[in-house]
Amino acid sequence: MASSCGPAWRSVCEKFRSAQHQSEVESRKDPENDPFRSKYNARELLREIHCTLKSLGGGENDEDGEAEHLQRETPGDEHRGGGGHPGDSAAGMRLARLGVVEYYLGVNHVETEELSAGEEHLMNCMNLLDKCAISRENVSVFIHVRNQLGILWAGRDEIDKAQGFLETAEAIYVRYVKEDGQPPADLTDFFMEGEYEITPQERIKRFEMAYTHTLYYLAQVYKNLDEYEKAARYCHITLQRQLQFDQFVPLEWAINAATLSQYYITKCCYMEGRHCLAAASIIANQAGELPSEAAAQESEVEGEKREQLQQKRAEIARCWIKYCLNLLQDAKKLLEDNIGELDVERQEELKRGRRREEEQEERGRKSAVLFSSSDTFDSICALEEKVSCSFPLDFEEARAIFLVGQAYVAEAKDYFQMDGHVTDHIEVLQDHSALFKALSFFEEDLERKCKMHKRRVDMLEPVCKDLNAQYYLLICRQLQFELADTYYEMMDLKLALANKQDELDAHTIKKFNHLCNASIKYYQKFLDSVRSPEGKFPEKLDEEVLRPGLVAKFRLARLHSRLISPDAPTQLQNLNRSLECYSFVVRYCEENPEARKAVETELELSEEMAGLLPLKISRLRAKMVSST
């Protein structure tokens, strides 16, 4: 047998290379009616290799001279061993080779959707490796097989099992780098010789990318376990390493970075969120130039490329919009008093602390996970400088953030047009409206505030009128409520302006009543949308419309009482409608006590007004009788 070991080994190596080619290259050409043909061919070759290795080695427990001969026949081993690890023995080498073949068989079965068989082979690989100490020869196999088992169990929703395999893979990598750190063997090294051997640089790259995959899969596992902070940290490190080792698809990487930014935004980590978004925008540009419309029409490939680039860049633009919007909204929460107005003392206090905050920003930046290894780092930093990551404390600072958000609104709308992207287009419009609303908080001039709300009406009202409620009921409700709310805010602003005048003129009264009636119309449309097909209002509101429905009734009550009318009968009618709406809120909460928590403030005011209005109505009636 020893005399035939040389040719036998060369045959093994040739079969391995052929199996790799079948699995990785030829499989892409397989017909739809036989999608796994090349994978099955690769499997047969791997099985033959497995049988040959077993026969050459004389059994799993054999450690005689034949195994040593086989080890010596493998080219390149002298570059990977040395060092006296227990796994460097001939038997350890043979077991590692068998483990590699079992690993590839396991992957093959998984890829052909034979998961149980795949698991069996992967576990065979694990069992073989467990007989060896971790060494340069086998550390990559240790990590790869646990990655695959992690994916396998995650696909079965056995997240805890997946977590165990992946965390062990992570620990193996950390321990190896700490204790050895030399470039380890790649899985293919066991069966490659001469010109087919990979370079040390490629060996390092593959090892590091295996670990990057471990981190990526762990990020998914932690997300499924609702450990979002941990998931975000692992996702960020994964993105960092993908850039570092130049192993990424630009558009895919950019979308992942933009998605991660949304997590940071929810945690008020605007520096990290901005960094992810800036990187996403820069890296997305590496995907290439946008083909012209003419080129897209002439070539299907160019058309698909144009569509994909436009869509992904528009999605990143939407993430930028959310960044600007959330930054403005969180600043508003920081600065408002208990009635939602600007707290001037708080504003001054925060401005005084701004310098200290800016000094801390640099330290915070150093502790953040930056994409510093990228050759595009300077471009990322330049884009970051175009928008602040600090809370705006006055109108000018807020306006600068608003303008950035508005520019991205235009970019997003360019792709998400009403024709073909109804829902997305309207969501972008709603974000644009929300940007104006957030900016208006910082504006001190009441007239200019009113004009900002008018811009919101102008962008939302035409869409609301044209949208078919039969197909877009939820969106219609959102738009109706927002329009009602916007007109309501405008009414409050006009009321505040009117209170500064000695006497209201006819034009002011007309404008004020128009705003009241417009708000009433949209609140009523919203409430009518929850009625049954027979027009009956539900005895119990669904959870998603409970608070909006009761708030709508409460505001209708206030709006009816605010309407200005020169004649007493109309005044009486408006007050009665107001009382009816206040009473509805009180009665509903009495009949459904669980609703009280949803509208505590509105309920308290409703109870008060439901007690006071009857007296006011009685006085008006008495006055009407006496005047006749």
UniProtKB/TrEMBL annotation:
**Compartments it resides in:** Cytoplasm, Cytoskeleton
A GO biological process this protein is involved in? Answer: microtubule cytoskeleton organization
> InterPro entries in the record, alphabetically?
KBP, TPR-like_helical_dom_sf
Q: Region (Disordered) spans which residues?
A: 17-39, 56-91, 346-366
Keyword Iron listed? The answer is no
- Bias regions of kind Basic and acidic residues — which residues? 67-81, 346-365
Q: What is this protein called?
A: KIF-binding protein
